[in-house]
Specification:
This protein is 36% helix and 19% strand. It has 15 helices and 15 strands. The strands form two sheets. It has a nine-stranded mixed beta sheet with strand order 14-13-12-11-7-10-9-8-15, sandwiched between helices. A six-stranded parallel beta sheet has the order 3-2-1-4-5-6, sandwiched between helices. Strand 13 and strand 14 form a beta hairpin. Bound molecules: nicotinamide-adenine-dinucleotide. The site of nicotinamide-adenine-dinucleotide (NAD) has 22 residues, from helix 1. Nicotinamide-adenine-dinucleotide binds next to helix 1.
Length: 483
């Protein structure tokens, strides 16, 4: 179903994110017929260029980062006619009147994507207002990171609130745009099967892993000021935790969902220092030049920033009292894998005797790669060997279940941009959620900073520091293998 006609201004339209995700994503929506032919995409960035240069930049980005098949039949050329460009200075006067002349006063949806450094968000908001573009039709899309602690997030929220109503602000967390994340809600709230078991009486623990194989790459300077807690846990992992742990909202509407997520964040217990493991990756012994250790990669020999973080926390409410949540994320690990696992308790009594073997049911929700949901079920080992129990997966891989054509690949960014145009904020973070998340992470970061904790080195292409394994073993549990 096509969305209504819109003007989308991409501030930072020549940058890495615009080239890798936003422009190819919009092109795919155009190919699918969801983006109307009279929609306009206006790149706005510092570089001096004309509209035709921008179209060339977009064509190159689309060819490199996605959408290959439709490029041959002239669709790309048609899409490029929707593009325009304005050279603009977020901090000065240049370009603003020109942009205003292109978008203001038109009877269509106006969306402004802030794909620039966060230090420019306030400048953009202020200039949109002073040039008459912050009217009630306008929507702004704000990229991460949203602050680096509670105080800076509050200040940023206050700045944006001077010019825009909360209903106009779309804070992106692209994890929420993933197909499986929405399926997680469908599985939880569309089936009778799981919800009665979804509590501390039946769930032993929950683990969330987001593992990357890449190191810090060219983002060393930014990453070293941030670390895994700020870059991944405060936003992506906490959002996943909220969706798993929240109470069923009354309806699938933006504020109903976000109210429930907020309650989860506010119920999170502080984290004990001995429930935190921080690490920094070592060099790859086979190729130390291409894959140096973390401190060399960020060019800071004394860095105490973590490229790996594992922690255990609890949610202080009736549903989850006593059920630990283990979160783990890191760079340069053995596989690229994001998975949420709900590990159920043992059956209270085994009628088959301990020698038959025992397996816990695990519901595992895989975000990448191979999005899908698997439920581990115990059955009898086939054959004449007597009653021996084995664990087999009931597998719902989306590609298998829906077929290659049934499961249209929609990247998180393109889905979220279409939600912005439709005015649906369900999959975007509200200001109070972001602040509550920082209010939980700030004391943890302050704690390790005050203690002077130094992250433990860990092997490249492994599963993180040994202390991460011990964090689980102390509780008689194991991390799921990263595959
Ligand atoms: P980038 O450095 O590649 O691009 C920055 C863009 O901002 C360029 O188009 C540049 O012309 C423009 N710009 C810089 N100063 C300007 C000014 N004074 N006035 C107008 N335009 C100006 O950055 P990026 O990697 O595309 O990241 C953009 C935003 O998205 C950042 O907030 C970043 O944290 C966030 N983000 C990026 C990624 C990613 O994969 N690149 C992922 C998640 C979030």
């Amino acid at each position: 179903i096509p969305v209504d006609p819109f003007d989308l201004v991409i501030f930072g339209g020549t940058g890495d994110l615009a080239r890798r995700k936003i422009l190819p994503g919009l092109f795919r929506r155009y190919c699918s017929g969801q983006m109307p032919e009279n929609a306009r995409i206006i790149g706005a960035a510092r570089s001096d260029m004309e509209a035709h240069d921008y179209a060339a930049l977009a064509a190159e980005a689309i060819q490199e980062f996605g959408g290959g098949k439709a490029c041959e039949d002239g669709t790309l050329e048609k899409f490029l006619t929707c593009l325009d460009y304005v050279t603009i200075d977020a901090r000065g006067d240049r370009g603003w009147s020109e942009l205003q002349a292109r978008v203001a006063g038109k009877d269509r949806i106006e969306a402004f994507y802030f794909s620039v450094a966060p230090s420019l968000f306030g400048d953009l908001a202020e200039r949109l207002q002073s040039h008459g573009m912050a009217d009630s039709k306008a929507r702004i899309v704000v990229e991460k990171p949203f602050g680096r602690d509670l105080a800076s997030a509050q200040a940023l929220n206050a700045t944006l609130a001077k010019y825009f109503d909360e209903k106009q602000i779309y804070r992106i967390d692209h994890y929420l745009g993933k197909e499986t994340v929405q399926n997680l809600m469908a599985v939880r709230f569309g089936n009778m099967l799981f919800e009665p078991l979804w509590n501390s009486q039946f769930v032993d623990h929950i683990q969330i892993t987001v593992a990357e194989t890449v190191g810090v790459g060219g983002r060393g300077e930014y990453y070293d000021k941030s670390g895994a807690m700020r870059d991944m846990v405060q936003n992506h992992l906490m959002q996943l935790l909220c969706l798993i742990a929240m109470e069923p909202p009354a309806r699938f509407s933006p504020d109903a969902v976000r109210d429930e997520k907020l309650k989860v964040i506010r119920a999170l217990d502080p984290v004990e220092p001995h429930h935190i493991v921080r690490g920094q990756y070592d060099a790859d012994p086979d190729d130390p030049d291409a894959m140096p250790d973390y401190r060399t990669a960020v060019d800071n020999p004394r860095s105490k920033t973590e490229s790996f973080l594992a922690l255990k926390t609890h949610i202080a409410n009736w549903r989850w009292a006593g059920t630990p949540f283990y979160l783990r994320t890191g760079k340069r690990l053995c596989a690229r894998s994001s998975e949420i696992s709900i590990v159920f308790k043992d059956t209270p009594h085994s009628i088959f005797g301990e020698e038959a073997g025992r397996h816990r049911n695990v519901l595992s929700i895989r975000l990448q790669p191979n999005e899908g949901i698997t439920l581990g079920v115990t059955i009898k080992e086939p054959g004449p060997g007597g009653m021996r129990l084995i664990d087999v997966p009931l597998d719902m891989s989306f590609a298998d279940a829906l077929g290659p054509d049934g499961a249209e690949h929609v990247d998180a960014y393109e889905r979220l941009i279409m939600d912005v145009i439709r005015g649906n904020q369900t999959l975007f973070m509200r200001g109070d959620e972001v602040e509550a998340a920082w209010a939980w992470t700030d004391p943890i970061i302050e704690g390790w900073t005050k203690r002077g904790d130094v992250p433990k080195p860990y092997d490249s292409h492994g599963a993180g520091p040994d202390t991460s394994t011990q964090l689980m073993r102390r509780d008689d549990r194991e991390w799921r293998e990263i595959t």
